[in-house]
Amino acid sequence: MSKKLFAPLALVGALLAAPVVSATTLTLYSGRGESMVQPILDQFQQETGIEVNVRYGGTAQLAVLLQEEGHRSPADVYWGQDAGAMGAVSKAGLLAELPEDIYKDLPGIYKSVTGNWVATSGRARLFIYSPNRTQAEDHPQSIFDLTDEKYRGRVGWAPTNGSFQSFVTAMRVEYGDEKTLEWLQGMKANDAKTFRNNTTQLEGVADGEIDYGIVNNYYLPRFTRNDANFPVAQQFFAEGDIGNLMNVAGVAVVKASRQQEAAQELVRFLVSPQAQQYFALEVNEYPVISGIIQNRHVEPYNEALQASPEIDLDELNGLEGTLRLLRRAGLI
């Protein structure tokens, strides 16, 4: 064989031996922040060869965009920050049904009853307190206890915060608008102190401005990682109390996507042990599967599951009704 023919044949052999790189590209609408989730998306891309082009934005904003685009949407996957947005998009008929093997073994608090979206991680509501200025016997057993006179002026909350509003939506689903309004008005009448967000409530407890606050579980670890003596502690209310709501980030395949299988592959990856370990240790959120190494800065996974109330996550989509109720209570 001549040298002239040998080179092209050798090149063909090399090409055949080279690994095949997928030309598939997914478009992801992500309501989760870039700094939080891009590292795990990079791992997915590296392992599968499937490229992921991400459009970052507010969860509600992207949910509205999906509804406006309808069947013309370029999105293949939607990743929302909370169950309310996932429920809204689901009810609009914009999500594809997921294969049952993706979600069948997950606890009920981590999956949609409709089977078209699944949680990627959980964020538990609970209360924070000053271990120096409170006694264990005085801690509230229910979030409804916080309207009691003994907590007057000692409790913080953040009515304009998105996670708080999702919690109020859950209270409305579980107890109805009138009881929820009664609680909101009772908290206001009991001189609950208004804060901008969860972080400032923690700072308020540490500084002695308040003795209690109601927040998401992952904020305190941000302080205790840097200062083991940070003067704030946290715990759940009594088992099943609505104050222990486990809200979730959720992911779904968009029905209009022409790349259903690749999109399902991304969803599967986000509930895989590899991704779940990342959410647990790096993001301080709860995994949706068992067998994940425990983050020592947050309450145990099984404890969070036990404390959380059972609620239909698809029903947490009534934000407008929640905002109306907060306005009636004079809180926004």
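[next item in queue]
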Amino acid sequence: MDDNKTFVWPVRVYYEDTDAGGIVYYANYLKFLERARTEWLRSLGIEQDTWLAHRIGFVVRQVQMDLISPARFNDELAVTVVVERLGKASVVFTQSVHNQQGVLLCQAQIKAACVNLGQAGSGVRAVAMPAEIFEVLKGAS
């Protein structure tokens, strides 16, 4: 992937992100990755709340995550987002978390599916992305 296709979002590790030893609790990496994807979408002009009003959303369907080295309280992190593969109803991201020294701490592959959230009480089902979203993501990948 081209470096100009890599989105980077800064994250600071807060006390609440850590365990008793001051190390980031493993599940909080998922939060960091999610925030970066949300900010990436926002940077592309895709506001999730607008689409949620139309009952369209994205749900994480699959996660592969490798925790390589620990992040610690008060670290400044860089969380990246790169589109690895774009399908009509899903997108696969490669994401990483580095500390301010550039050390790779976490690498992940996330598959998100586009869904129709249906009416209250009805099921959620996978659907093709609206053309407006697909075209923007295609241009960003």
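[queue empty]
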